[in-house]
TrEMBL record:
Belongs to the thiolase-like superfamily. FabH family. The last Arg residue of the ACP-binding site is essential for the weak association between ACP/AcpP and FabH. Signal peptide: none annotated. Residues 106-187 form the Beta-ketoacyl-[acyl-carrier-protein] synthase III N-terminal domain. Residues 238-327 form the Beta-ketoacyl-[acyl-carrier-protein] synthase III C-terminal domain. Keywords: Acyltransferase, Cytoplasm, Fatty acid biosynthesis, Fatty acid metabolism, Lipid biosynthesis, Lipid metabolism, Multifunctional enzyme, Transferase. It catalyses: malonyl-[ACP] + acetyl-CoA + H(+) = 3-oxobutanoyl-[ACP] + CO2 + CoA. The active site is at 112, 254, 284. This is Beta-ketoacyl-[acyl-carrier-protein] synthase III. Catalyzes the condensation reaction of fatty acid synthesis by the addition to an acyl acceptor of two carbons from malonyl-ACP. Catalyzes the first condensation reaction which initiates fatty acid synthesis and may therefore play a role in governing the total rate of fatty acid production. Possesses both acetoacetyl-ACP synthase and acetyl transacylase activities. Its substrate specificity determines the biosynthesis of branched-chain and/or straight-chain of fatty acids. Homodimer. It is found in: Cytoplasm. Pathway: Lipid metabolism; fatty acid biosynthesis.
Length: 333
């Protein structure tokens, strides 16, 4: 069996945080943030709102977009860096709140590549005939793990959620077909993106320095890795499925930095106009980034059923992944 995307839903928490608001709190400026990252606004959840809340809303909308009832979903895969609790996973709670019944539901931890990891796993479960439909969600509340003393990460990350419904099909001819995926990792660089404390290697105690409880990133080193790894992954996938770069209608890259997206398009030889960009509005939403960018392009009227879409992402781990899709005849909600 093959997997096809039959629904897409998103949710952003209502609170919009402008560069001006952050410039009043940190030693930064709208000019620095815009020119170095391309970000103008991002959404942050109100205190008390958790990743599972955003994921549930996006999941509900994806189900509606697919025209499915809760009982139609066989599996939930939720990608997140910011689960509601260190234990248990967030996916079972989301499945329960969506009324999906006693279906398998589990989290994937691949940081900003998480959505593409979850998509690949959903596709594999369908191919193995373990599921006829999979709800794949990427959801984050990075605002809960940002160091309030770190101006660099604080201006970059935003909260949000995006979800797709995958369904089994016997062929890949019709729009919506997920034609292939590619995943990779390199743990030798695990320290470039991390929350140092709070795991089994460095449990949090009353004496843990506050900075070690927050998200950290070595920006310039990550930047270089991101362009190279997403470029390699996307190229490998293109070869695998027999697409050439000129035939890609839309490049949907992880929205980590507008300059990375431009460099990536150049590396892949895809005209920069075919790159989908919504980082200016939402910032880096990590595992929610790719589905939010897809929905953004669809709402702008840029996507026609059958268009060839190349998605690629990179994140902590290090991890990376790519997926190829023909755009389905759906309306994202
Ligand atoms: N406002 C103003 N100045 C800032 C700042 C901010 N918010 N954040 C950092 N700076 C300063 C630095 O202190 C540094 O100053 P110095 O030259 O006096 O030391 C200067 O800006 C340049 O810092 P640097 O970290 O080299 O900036 P950069 O141009 O690399 O941009 C990132 C930083 C994080 C935006 C960029 O490295 C990036 O996007 N990295 C990749 C992120 C990514 O791919 N993530 C994917 C997985 S999540």
């Amino acid at each position: 069996m093959h997997a096809a995307v039959i629904g897409l839903g998103t949710h952003l928490p209502p609170r919009l945080v402008t560069n001006g608001e952050l410039a009043a709190r940190f030693d930064t400026s709208d000019e620095w943030i815009t020119s170095r990252t391309g970000i103008r606004t991002r959404h942050w959840a109100e205190p008390g709102t958790a990743t599972g809340d955003l994921a549930t809303e996006a999941g509900l909308r994806a189900l509606k977009s697919a025209g499915l009832a809760p009982g139609d979903i066989d599996v939930v895969v939720l990608a997140t860096t910011t689960p509601d609790h260190p234990c248990p996973a967030t996916a079972p709670d989301v499945a329960s709140r969506l009324g999906l019944g006693p279906v398998p539901a589990y989290d994937i931890a691949a940081v900003c590549s998480g959505f593409l990891y979850a998509l690949a796993i959903g596709q594999a479960q369908i191919a193995a005939q373990q599921a006829g439909t999979v709800l794949v969600i990427g959801a984050e509340t990075y605002s809960t793990i940002l160091n309030p003393d770190d101006r660099t990460t604080s201006v970059i990350f935003g909260d949000g959620a995006g979800a797709v419904v995958l369904a089994a099909r016997e062929d890949t001819d019709r729009p919506g077909a997920l034609l292939g995926t590619h995943l990779g990792s390199d743990g030798a660089h695990k320290d470039l993106i991390r929350i140092p404390a709070g795991g089994s290697r460095y449990p949090t105690t009353a004496y843990t320095p506050e900075a070690d409880r927050y998200f950290t990133m070595e920006g310039p080193k990550v930047f270089r890795q991101a362009v190279v790894r997403m470029g390699e992954s996307a190229t490998t996938l293109l070869h695998r499925i027999g697409w050439v770069a000129e035939k890609v209608d839309h490049l949907v890259g992880h929205q980590a930095n507008a300059r990375i997206l431009t460099a990536l398009a150049g590396q892949l030889d895809i005209p920069v106009e075919r790159t989908v960009v919504n980082i200016d509005r939402v910032g880096n939403t990590s595992a929610a980034s790719v589905p939010l960018a897809l929905a953004h392009a669809a709402r702008q009227g840029r996507l026609t059923p059958g268009d060839r879409i190349l998605m690629t992402a990179f994140g902590g781990g290090l991890t990376w992944g790519s997926a190829a899709l023909t755009w389905p005849d759906i309306t994202p909600l």
